[in-house]
Amino acid sequence: MFTRFLLLSLALGFLCPNLAAKSKWWKTEIEGMRVYSESSENRTRKLLAELSDARGTLDLLFPGLVQEGAMPLNVYIFKSRKSFSQVAPLYDGKPNNSIVGLYLKHNYEGPSLIIVGEGETEQIRSTAFHEYVHHLLHQPGLKLPPWLDEGFAELFSTVVRKKDNKVVVGSTIPSSIYALQRHEPIPLKRFFRIQHSSHEYGSGSQETSVFYAQSWALTHFLMYGENKLPENAFRKLFNRAKNGTPIYEEDLMELLGVNYAQLEQMLANYCKNGKFTQLVYGLPANPSVEDAALVPLSQGEIQLLYGSLLLVTRDAQEAYPYLARASEALEQSTLAASFLGYQSMAQGRWSDATADLKRAIDLGGESPYLYLNYATSLLREHIPNYAFYSESINEAETGELLHALNRSRELGGDFSQELFKRFGEVILSSASEPPPEQVSVLVQGHQIYPYDEWIALYIAQYLVARSRWEEARNFVEYTSRLPLDSSARELHRTLLKSLPPKSEG
User: Fold this and answer.
1) Domain count, the chain
2) CATH code (residue 423)
3) End residue of a domain, out of 262, 277, 292
4) Over the stretch 311-328, which tens digit does the pLDDT of each residue have?
5) Low-confidence residues of the chain, pLDDT below 50?
6) Would you state the pLDDT for residue 421?
7) CA nearest to 301, candidates 266, 268, 337, 329
8) What are the angstrom distances between the C-alpha of 63 and each of 58, 154, 159?
9) How many Å apart are CA 169 and CA 166, to the nearest integer?
10) N or C: which end of the chain has fewer CB within 10 A?
11) Which domain holds residue 409?
């Protein structure tokens, strides 16, 4: 089977045009970003300076909110839509040429931000910069509700640098003003309860436009509006909501001294008045942007760039010719070996993936994603996704898996929910009793990612297997309040049936 796949892939490599062969790219690293640019040096530095200003302003106003990730954000700057069409996601079988900004979250060496085109700053700001702010906010232990998450992203994507080391925040967003003027706002009682799964959030309907516009307007009003709310009203509301806690009317009364109807009227007046306050803050330009050395990429590195993007934007088969050429040109590259392994993972060829990822580790790879994916691939040779089979991995295999997962955590901290899920699967599938410190890691994962249903379910299963009924019951009841997919619901039902009746008294 693999031989046939390899021959087909090699044939595709000869038949597929080498789109990357004539491209010229730069690379550099600054402030939590690993940057690859096909654009001019001036354009590249300008975009990086604007991204840096958004980050710096957010950090200035909310110290400590922005944290360094386990790995830098991968930023790709394409010089034109035509150039990006070579790797753009397909829509009806054709490259989607409407994209000017795209954020891709995945476990292949960290998330990616794609910026497309020259001279389209406003379009880019409304998409790429918006997504960049989301990236900064999506930190372990921080779960902003959708309205606040989108409000922040909209507001801080408008940061503009002025002279004399000043930046301006709070510029109006014409599309949001238009949506609020044309359509009725969403009642706050419903607005504050909208989740990512809600119709208003992701349906692309009229209500979606209103939700985004209202999120920006409410965040803008609470932060900058000339109103009669208590001092630091927004910070109080932010601290209440930042862990995903819904905002109820009694919270508004306690924190802001207003009810839903009063706040709705204040917001309506603010929008009708049309005078959106813009505040100026002192923020020196980030010297690392000007000082960063832009180094040309080799042809092997460009092949790797295109292959790694195609793996995420399209599919593993289309990525393979580029990754194969990159691996041949960059024999000692841990990244090239890693992405060959990730390509095999995407096709479910676990033994091939394990071999390539082990080679990347032997070459000296020190990425938390590499060790996490190595453990995942090794585990998938025994059990499928989000599953466990009691005593299906022996003591030696357990030791190797836990070593890889612990090494991933040493390198990247608590960077990924998937890391803690793998700990759970290993603990539940091991033929040997897991060390207490590894079980503690799983519990810590639940504390950091309390809304991840699988981490909570794995803890419940561990407790059920040891007849720790009351502790298990607490976790089972907790997960019943979380959104569950069909697999999670099945495990939840099984755990529920395994619990003894509640003791009376």
Assistant:
1) 2
2) 1.25.40.10
3) 277
4) 999 999 999 999 999 999
5) 1-15, 505
6) 96
7) 329
8) 8, 19, 17
9) 10
10) C
11) 366-495
